[in-house]
Amino acid sequence: MDLMAYKFHMITWLIVTAFQVLSVFFLWVAVYKNSPHAVINGYTFKEMISFMVMINIFNYIAFDGYTGDVISDEVSDGTIANSFIKPISYRVRFLATNLGVLGAKIVVFGLPMFTISYVIFALLGFIVIESIGTFLLSLLLFLIALVLASMLYDAISYIFGVLSFYTTAYFGLYMLKETTIQFLSGTLVPLAFFPAGMYKVLRYLPFAGMAENPVLILLMRDSPLVALQKIAIAIAWLVVIELFGALLFSRASKKVTVGGG
Amino acid sequence: MRYIKLYFTCLKRAIISRLQYKADSIIGIIGFLISNTATLLSIYFIIDAIPSLNGWSIYELGFLYGFSMMPVAFDHFFSDELWNTAYWKIKNGKLDPFFLRPIPVLFQIIAEAVQPEAFGELILGGVMLGICAANVGVKWSFGLILLLVIATIFGGILITGIKIFFAAFALKFKRSGTLLQGVYNMIGYTRYPISIYPLILRTLLTCILPFAVIITMPVEAVLFSAFNPYLLSLLIIGVAGAVLVLSVLFWNWMERFYQSTGS
User: Fold this and answer.
1) Long-range contacts, B233-242 (Cβ 8 Å, 24+)
2) Do the Cβ atoms of A189 and B47 come within 8 Å?
3) Taking the domains of chain A in order of start, what are their residue ranges?
4) Nearest C-alpha of chain B: how many angstroms from A33?
5) What is the ipTM of this complex?
6) Which of A161, B53, B105, B146 is most buried, by the most CB atoms less than 10 A from its CB?
7) Confidence check: pLDDT of B3 > 90
8) pLDDT in tens, B186-234
9) Which of A13, A22, A175 is facing B32, going by the closest CB pair?
């Protein structure tokens, strides 16, 4: 809720994001102008633009760096010691916070931003809604995929936070985490643009489920069956990553050194 | 003179304080390498799908990207603490002690930290520059090399100046990190040929936030002989100096509005 307290910060954030999307927009305009084909790797210009806008909004809604930031702060200032004596699991505490923040973000930002862009794109003909039934089904599946994406991100954020037990500093880990996720989740460029071999592998990694897959579901590029498959893959990965995180924590917590409080 | 000596004392202290977290520095360097490689690969994947981007081949774009990292790295090494100031330092009341010391606040902030991760960018940028220049077949001359060195150093100074200017807003508004981030991100615009943007953005990038002057124009001078390297070097020095002076004046003026958050 630190977020709400600083309005100046919020407004500037919107401008910042808009400007970032704008540069990508002009890049894509130039790319399609220079291209001899109207469809590049399965995307028309209109589809590409709606994809890029939606995935950027999605990033803001689904990803919250809180977990990793707080763990590393607690490691560096020593307050982590308190967490070891509290009767609540360290992981559950962050999971709950993350879901709370996600809920607030969906209501306050996600709903208006997604709705406005979706309506604009639909009016411009960038998104074609074939039937209300498919639309509603996609919307439902999208919501599930969004929650899963946020939980996947949080689980990975947690692992990187716990890794700071070893490094006692977080900046490097943070960079590593953000970049890997941005690149492999299709945020920088759709996964279909990757070389064929990489694309085949990336589709089954957890990163695809963290941004590209939910957005493709929202844009109705996937049939409900394919969407369900993708959701199943995301759930499977979530279980694996959480297990890994728990294992890592139990090992790392023996390592933790507290540098005074 | 006293300040130069003081700066080096602080620098030494900052490096020692960074070395406390050796593992993090190494991971940071790797992080920056991966981050830039990822962006670069994305550009490659996109451009690979088309013949050329407004006449720029993939190697020419790589050269542009590689060079864009040099001034950024230079600024990055020296003035990273400005981020901390704009985002958290003032809000958390940690700037208060700075005002009690008999040294300019801005000087203390700059001297507070260094960022060894910058070497990661410098190395990657240099390697890319070399590889792409060889593939494009750049005809190097003394003037062009001088131009790139000047653009790196003074470009870094210009970026620092702009960072000071926008971090100064935090003195009044407690927090200007996002604003600073937004302006800083505009550097990313110069990774692509400036001709892909509409006139208004091109004007913004050359006249108001002159990142194109320190990145795009030197590269165009090297690749397409678009500018005289000596005149362009002078222009870069002039613009960077002006921006730095203006920003420091603005910072000092904004200091008058500083109020502690009391927390």
Assistant:
1) B233/B146, B233/B147, B233/B150, B233/B151, B236/B150, B236/B151, B236/B154, B236/B155, B236/B158, B237/B150, B237/B154, B239/B154, B239/B158, B239/B210, B239/B213, B239/B214, B240/B154, B240/B155, B240/B157, B240/B158, B240/B161, B240/B214, B241/B154, B241/B157
2) no
3) 2-252
4) 9
5) 0.81
6) A161
7) no
8) 998 998 999 999 999 999 999 999 999 999 999 999 999 889 999 999 9
9) A175
